[in-house]
Design a protein that fits this description.
Helix content: 55-70%
Structural class: mainly alpha
Number of strands: 6
Shape: elongated
Largest sheet: 2 strands, antiparallel
Number of helices: 20
CATH class of the largest domain: Mainly Alpha
Order of helices and strands: HHHHHHHEEHEHEHHEHHEHHHHHHH
Strand order of the largest sheet: 1-2
CATH architecture of the largest domain: Up-down Bundle
Number of domains: 3
Radius of gyration: 31 Å
Length: 455
Amino acid sequence: MKLWAGRFTKDTDERVNSFNSSLSFDCRMYKHDIKGSMAHAKMLGKCGIISNEDVELILKGLEGILADIENQKLTFDNDAEDIHMFIEAELTKRIGDAGKRLHTARSRNDQVAVDLRLYLIDEIKEIIELITELIEVLIKKAEENKETIMPGYTHLQRAQPIMFGHHLMAYVSMLLRDKERLSQCLERTKVLPLGSCALAGTTYPIDRQMVKDELGFNNVCANSLDGVSDRDFAIELASDISIAMMHLSRFSEEVVLWCSWEFKFIELDDGFSTGSSIMPQKKNPDITELVRGKTGRVYGDLMTLLTMMKSLSLAYNKDMQEDKEAIFDAVDTIKECLITVIPMIDTMTVLKGNMRKAAAKGFINATDLADYLTKKGVPFRDAYKISGSIVGWCVLNDKTLEEVPMEVYKEYSEIFEEDVFDAINLETCVNMRKSEGGPSKESVEKQIKLAKEKL
């Protein structure tokens, strides 16, 4: 029999039971439901709402249920509507009337909200730890490659020479912001809804501050309607996860390119690659391709939450049951991606020679050639035109800027001297870019130091 069955004169249709049930996915919150119930019971006892004897029975009963679930001695009843009803029914079965008193001054509405917040608090902390681990791996790779020259790109065209360490530190900057966003989301999730009851609080003399402290929340929600009827904390988390997945997807796209024979900038470890069922030569970067695909899935989770909430009047509506599968999926997905990507990056081999060869082609030191003239007094636009004309000569004659004879340079401007070859040397081009945040070895070292301090 349903715990809410008093008003009804007939059993719920089995088709409704199946459609209405959320146990299949909210059962993962069993620890958090028990934790919230234990704090609630302690508060009821302290406030004299139920007896201390009942509190002791409730706590002991809940501890037993938790242990039995953990040890797989107790399995979830598929006939239960949700994890909250399952645990309360099991508790009552074990300790009798004392179990029926647990739900005093509480509704499933605020119970669900506190369980979800407790669950997501733990998950956010895990995601932050994983992102921190990824940042540390990227920093390690950046330190190893602070003098590894590669071509920097715009429009996927070779543009200017940079250090590979500088490229990696760009992703460190993105991930540090992801970590900061998640940390801020964590603080906003630590607001206690328990005590809001169905929507209008309670006439019992409860102590919400005690429950807040017992459960480790920072604040108590200031409005009971808001406490049970909003899920902005879950939407914010899904948004933060979506942004982090976008960063992972961008990096994954680059790994796919870098692994290709057209680039061959890196080699993934065999343990983090797959082969082809028909082409024996293939070594595929499937992990990164899956990250790209799963990013769209997480975006869908965010849109599910936003769409679900957009037309709901206050307070609680059954639509909100749909919050869990979406946010659970977003959380599971980013954790799965991070757990796999971290060792993939840690074990990849950087093919420094190939990066250097690619940087030597494509005239990526043409800007430095123009800067050379500008520093000798030529207006930048004139210097830009001269440099572009010399690049055109190189294309026609299959030469690089370093291979242009001095007499040809002189044809375009008498200002050119032998020191031009030092100015357009790739190492010079990169290491002279010492502006804050730039690609020089010195700048990359500063970026690494700053990132470590932020960690």
